[in-house]
Design brief:
Elements (H helix, E strand, L loop, with lengths): L5 E9 L6 E10 L5 H11 L4 E3 H11 L13 H23 L3 H12 L8 E7 L5 E7 L4
Parallel strand pairs: 2-3
Antiparallel strand pairs: 1-2, 1-5, 4-5
Length: 146
């Protein structure tokens, strides 16, 4: 099963500093990172950058001790793999049906059905927290939508 890139962002505000002070760290186009939010936080706290991407982000991950996985498929749950295989089969069957039927109505019907076979969007997670001093932390991570 193919894996695409992961993007993550962490933002932290200090409302007691005027003007509003904002810390941020982000990573983009990273693969083989189990916890990209942790890597984004390290970009925020341990670098002069606000965002790293691709190979540069992976080099930074190794430098700061964030594990880089040898086998990224270990990040895929059994349930996600089952959903992927089910949706893949649906798409293959719809393609076969379109190949068998050559009239416009059949192609239109298959096209509409294909749009309905997209897996539910569960690829993004996020969190927002505020402490008693009004400091706000926000994080978000988006990965492969299987």
């Amino acid at each position: 099963m193919p894996l695409s890139c992961i993007e993550s962002l962490v933002v932290f505000t200090k409302p007691d500093v005027f003007p509003l002070f904002l810390y941020q760290g982000a990573v983009a186009c990273v693969q083989n990172i189990a916890n990209p939010i942790s890597l984004a936080r390290k970009v925020m706290t341990d670098s002069a950058h606000c965002m790293l991407a691709g190979e540069g982000a992976l080099k930074f991950a190794r430098h700061v001790g964030i594990p880089v996985l040898d086998d990224p498929s270990s990040l895929i749950s059994d349930r996600s793999h089952q959903i992927y295989m089910k949706e893949k089969l649906k798409c293959e069957n719809l393609k076969k049906e379109a190949d068998c039927r050559r009239n416009d109505t059949a192609v239109e019907k298959v096209s509409q059905e294909k749009n309905n076979t997209q897996p539910e969007g569960h690829d993004t997670v996020g969190a927002v927290a505020m402490d008693t001093n009004g400091h706000i932390a926000v994080s978000s991570s988006t990965g492969d939508a299987l």
